Amino acid sequence: MTDSLVRAPETDRTHATPEQYAERYARSLSDNDAFWLEEARRLDWVTAPSKAGNWSYDPVDIRWYDDGVLNLCHNALDRHLDARGEKVALHFEPDDPESEARTLTYRELHREVVRIANALKAIGVKKGDRVTIYMPMIPEGTAAMLACARIGAIHSVVFGGFSPEALAGRIADCESRFVITADGGLRGGKPVPLKDNVDAALERPGAGVEAVLVVRHTGCEVNWTEGRDFWLADKANDADCPCEEMKAEDPLFILYTSGSTGKPKGVLHTTGGYGVWAALTFHYVFDVRPEDIFWCTADIGWITGHSYVAYGPLLNGASQVIFEGVPNYPDAGRFWDVVDKYGVSIFYTAPTAIRALMREGDGPVTSRDRSSLRLLGTVGEPINPEAWRWYHEVVGSGRCPIVDTWWQTETGGIMITTLPGAHDMKPGAAGKALFGVEPVLVDGEGKLLEGAAEGNLCMARSWPGQARTVYGDHQRFVDTYFSTFPGRYFSGDGCRRDEDGYHWITGRVDDVINVSGHRMGTAEVESALVLHPTVAEAAVVGYPHDIKGQGIYCFVTLVAGEEPDDALERELKAQVRSEIGPIATPDLIHFTPALPKTRSGKIMRRILRKIAENDYDSLGDTSTLADPGVVDALIAGRRNR
Ligand code: ATP
Ligand code: MG
C-alpha cells in the first residue's frame, strides 16, 4: 500500500519535466564542475569563481568556489531593489490574530537590515565576530541574520524557546561576545521572557558577552545592565552601510543541530556554496513563480528557518509569510486562517505539526478555504503514509503535490525529494536526489549496495551546501561523518531504495532494532501503529529481550478523547503483525499522554530507549527537550509495568 504512486497533476508540469530532470541530473554528475559554475550564476559575485568544487573526504577538507568573492546580503536584498523594490518580502503574522500584522517590501526590509547592521557596528561587531541571535519569529530576526551577513559577522541563531542554560552553552561554545534579542516574545498567547533569559544566561560563568542589542517587541518590563544592554532603536541608523566583500569560504553561520541524538554540534556553513545551494534548492523544489506566496513554518532557530525563511526565498526574490505563533492558537485552524489571509500558495511544515493537527480532526481544516494552496512540503522526520495522505487529501484537497524533503543541518539544504511535476509521489518516501547529489547505500561493512536495497545512507561526493566543520572541533566533524565509512559522508540515517530509485528513510541507524537477527527500522513499525484510527503518534525503540536479543517497545499516544485498554493493545499488536509480519509484533505497548520531543518537535528516541531499558540515570543531554516533565511521567509509567 505504501508503495502506491500518487500522480503529479499535469498542470504543475511547468518547472522541470521528468526528461529535464533526468538530463540535468545526469549532467550534474558527469560534468560536475561546469554544472556548479553555471549554477553559481544564480548569485551576483564581486569576483566570479573560476572553479567550483575543491574538496576531499580523506583528509576532510571541503571547499567550493574558493576564489569567488560575494556578499549574501547583497544577493538577498540590494540586487533586487531596482527590479522589485516594492515587491513584498515579508508578511509578518503576529501570535495574536488581533494584533497588527506588518508587511515589508524588499526596500523596507533592506532599510531595516542596514539599520541593524549599523547598530551592530556601533556596539563593536567586526567581520568574523560571532553574534548570537535569540529572537522571536519577527521580521527583525531575519533582518538580524542578514545584517550579520552584510558586515561579515558570523551568526549563531539560538531558538527563542531554549532555556538560559542551553543559550549559555551555545554562546560559550562559539565564544560569542554579542547577543541580539528582544524584550520578549509571544507564543500561543504566552509571554516568552527572552531578555530575562539572556540575563540569566549571561550570569553563568564563561559567557564573555560584551554587548546585548535589544529589539522592542512586546513592550514588557526588562532588567537593564548599563554599558552592556542597548535598545536597537538607540543604536540603529540609516547611514550608508556597504556590503562587506566576503570570500566564498568565509564562514556565514554556525548552527547547533537539534540534539535528537546527543550533544548538539555547532555546524559551520560558509558563504558561497551555501548561498548557491539555498538559492537552487528553493527554486527547484518549491517550483517558485513570481506571484507565489511562500510560507515555511519553521523557526529561524533551525536550519529549515535559515535556508527556507532567511536565505532561499530572499535570494530568489520571493514573497513569504513569517509567523510568530503556534499551529493551535487560538485554535487548530490557525495555519489555514493564515493561508487564507495572505493567499499562501506554497506551504512547508513538519510531520510533528501535521500529526498534531490531524489529531484534531478535519473540521478545523475543511472550514477554511485553502484554495490558494498549490504545493505542500514536509521536513524533519519521516512522515507516516497515514499522515501524508491526510496532508494530501484534507489539507491539499487532493490537488497539491507534496514534496517530502530529506536533509539535515549538515547538508545546508534539501538533498532528496520528489520535484513537483517531474516525479510522481509515494506517500512516505522522500524520493530522488537533487542535482549534484549522489546518495549511496552501504552495508555495515561499507560495501556498496546496488539497485533496490536497504542500508546506511551516505553521500559519495560533496555538494556546495555541505557543512565545512563543527565549530572549534574539526575532529568531531571527521569522526561523526567521515570515519564510519571512509571516503564518504555518512548521514547517520538508514534508508531503503526501491526499484524506482525512491528513497525511504527508515530512521536513525542508531535506532535500528535487531529482533532475533532481523534488522528493522523504527519508522515502519511506527507507521503501522499510526494507521489505527485511535493512534495519534507512535515511537518505537528496542530493549533487551532474553530470547530475541531485542524486543519491540512501542510508546503510543491516542487521538483526543480516546482511552487505552487491553483490547486496544491487542488490536494494535495484531495490526502491526498483519501490516509488516509476525517478526515485527510489538512486545510492549506503553500508552502515554505525550512523547519527549526536541524543541523542533522531533521525538527523542534516545531517551525513550533509556526508559525502555529501565535505565534512568544516564538520560544524556536533555537541554533540547521541549517539556522535561514528560520524562517523569514516562518513567512512572514504565515503573508500573
Ligand atoms: P542531532 O543531529 O543533534 O541529533 P537532528 O539530526 O534531529 O539532531 P537536524 O539536522 O535538524 O537535527 O535533522 C536532520 C535529521 O532529520 C535527518 O538526519 C533525518 O533523520 C531527519 N529528517 C529530516 N527530514 C526528513 C525527511 N523528509 N524524512 C525522514 N527523515 C527526515
Ligand atoms: Mg543529525
UniProtKB/TrEMBL annotation:
Domain Acetyl-coenzyme A synthetase N-terminal, first and last residues per copy: 21-76
AMP-dependent synthetase/ligase domain: residues covered: 78-461
Function, in words: Catalyzes the conversion of acetate into acetyl-CoA (AcCoA), an essential intermediate at the junction of anabolic and catabolic pathways. AcsA undergoes a two-step reaction. In the first half reaction, AcsA combines acetate with ATP to form acetyl-adenylate (AcAMP) intermediate. In the second half reaction, it can then transfer the acetyl group from AcAMP to the sulfhydryl group of CoA, forming the product AcCoA.
Binding site for CoA: 187-190, 304, 328, 516, 577
Binding site for ATP: 380-382, 404-409, 493, 508, 519
A GO term from the CC aspect: cytosol
CDD domains xrefs: ACS
Domain AMP-binding enzyme C-terminal: start-end pairs: 524-602
Post-translational modification: Acetylated. Deacetylation by the SIR2-homolog deacetylase activates the enzyme.
Listed cofactors: Mg(2+)
Gene3D superfamilies xref list: 3.30.300.30, N-terminal domain of ligase-like (3.40.50.12780)
Official protein name in the record: Acetyl-coenzyme A synthetase
Residues annotated as binding Mg(2+): 530, 532, 535
Keywords of the record: Acetylation, ATP-binding, Ligase, Magnesium, Metal-binding, Nucleotide-binding
GO BP annotation list: acetyl-CoA biosynthetic process from acetate
GO-annotated molecular function: acetate-CoA ligase activity; AMP binding; ATP binding; metal ion binding
Record's catalysed reaction(s): acetate + ATP + CoA = acetyl-CoA + AMP + diphosphate
Top-level taxon in the UniProt lineage: Bacteria
Family designation: Belongs to the ATP-dependent AMP-binding enzyme family.
Pfam families in UniProt: ACAS_N (PF16177), AMP-binding (PF00501), AMP-binding_C (PF13193)
EC number: 6.2.1.1
Modified sites of kind N6-acetyllysine: 602
